[in-house]
Amino acid sequence: xxxxxxxxxxxxxxxxxxxxxxxxxxxxxxxxxxxxxxxxxxxxxxxxxxxxxxxxxxxxxxxxxxxxxxxxxxxxxxx
Length: 79
Known about the structure:
Layout: E1 2-7, H1 17-31, E2 34-41, E3 63-67, H2 72-78
Parallel strand pairs: 1-2, 2-3
């Protein structure tokens, strides 16, 4: 089985375009026999006023890895 890694800044439960691109791409890749893993930030700052239960975009065939964001001091060192 072929494997695909998608790296995105936001994933469920955020409601922005890059989350939907990653979700739809992973859905279609899985249908064509790919094993998809999504890596995203752990604390997504963008939410709607919608309860989290109604925003279930989970894909059972996709592994989602949530990683911690780098500290602000690290970004300051990089410029």
